[in-house]
Amino acid sequence: MWRVKMQDDAAAFAELVARWQGPIQRLCTRMTGDSHRGEDLAQETFVRLFGRRKDYEPSGRLSTFLWRIALNLCYDELRRLKRRPESALDDSTSEDGPPLLVAEEPGPDAALARRECAEAVCQALLRLAEPYRAVVVLRHYEGLKFREIAELLDIPEGTVKSRMAEALTQLGRLLHPVLQGAEPTVPHESILL
Amino acid sequence: MKHPTPEDWMTLLYDEATVVQRAELQAHLAQCPVCASRVGAWRKTRGVLDQWQVAAPARRPAATPRRWQWAVAAILMLGVTFGLGRWSTATGPDGDRLREALRAEFQQQLDATRAALRAEWERQADALALAVQRETLAETQRLLTDYAQSSDERRLIDLQTLYAAMKQLEARRQQDQSLLRRELETVAVLTENSLAQLTGTQ
User: For residue B9, what is the nearest residue in chain A, using CA coordinates?
Assistant: First the structure.
């Protein structure tokens, strides 16, 4: 990043994109529930990163800088989507197909069941309030430490942990049918915060 | 029995607890059915979360082609046009006419590309000029503010210096005046004494 900042080194920036594109895209996809939107947001993240390369302080962690840009873009996008209810999050999956990847199963029934389970998880996550969703995505899926998330979100570490606990409790409630092995039926009314 | 907090359980659940912490939490878990049930539920939920894996989506065409894509398209079109021209010269009976038609088309596309590029350059130049203008204006305002501020500060310092000098002069004047007065008084006393002696001798 230092080379990018000081020398506008395109090759170094390409390396950086190659290293971080996957995690950033996954974060954006999980935050918005739409893989194509996640892809666009990831691209936008790198555009912003390049545009703000002079703001980068080498004393800080690049990952924190990058995650923060991506997360802010996700929040902006989610706010924009809320203002335009005709393109709600639920529609995006039906249009382009859900952003799901499930492991191959021998039989079509098992594959279908796993797909439904993945879909239920996706929908349940989307129903979490954004601060909780961000913590779940960063800790559970991206494997950041609680301390790193606290630094990234600029909140105390204890708050991150309590949000994680609350998020898991809410997800357990939302995914109760899946956990019981029944048909996943995620309630549609907003019941969280 | 004092139960650990949800925050404590999260450190255990996500392998961030220290060895001592872990041992304490596991010991508590072994003897507290309430916490065991709670942590068990969280563990199950965690397990289900792993069912959703995000795949890197296949690349899709961008909604609006970028400038370089236009350039590639123009080059391809030129290549095809050139190839067709060569082919028609060699094989077709109406080679000249076809070549003429293709040349016109080529010229038209070249003009369109040139116009598009010119428009883009002009747009960028305008944007740059506007940005420079705004930057200059902001810089001028900043300099003026700085100048006004420093000018005020200088005036204040001048006034303070002047006041101090005047105060010093006044003090010296008063000192001189009292000295003069004392000297005059001495002269007066001496004169009076002299006059008294003169009167006495006569």
Answer: A165
For residue range A76-86, list pLDDT tens digits in order: 999 888 877 65
Task: Using a cut of 0.80, tell me whether the model's pTM lies above it.
Answer: no
ipTM of the complex as predicted: 0.75
Its sign, for the CA torsion A45, A51, A56, A58, is positive
What is residue A151's DSSP assignment?
Answer: H
Q: Report helix, strand or coil for B52.
A: coil
B196 interface with A at CB cutoff 8 Å: no
Cβ pairs bridging A and B (under 8 Å): 86
Percent of chain B residues past pLDDT 90, beyond the cut: 39
The chain A residues in contact with chain B (CB within 8 A) are 22, 25-26, 29-30, 35-36, 38-39, 99-103, 114, 117-118, 121-122, 125, 136, 139-141, 145-146, 158, 161-162, 164-166, 168-169, 171-172, 175, 178-179
Higher-confidence position of A191 and A103:
A103
Task: Judge contact between B26 and A182, C-beta under 8 A.
Answer: no
Higher pLDDT, A62 or A163: A163
Cα distances from B191 to residues A144, B36, B119, B181, B185, in angstroms, run 104, 118, 106, 15, 10
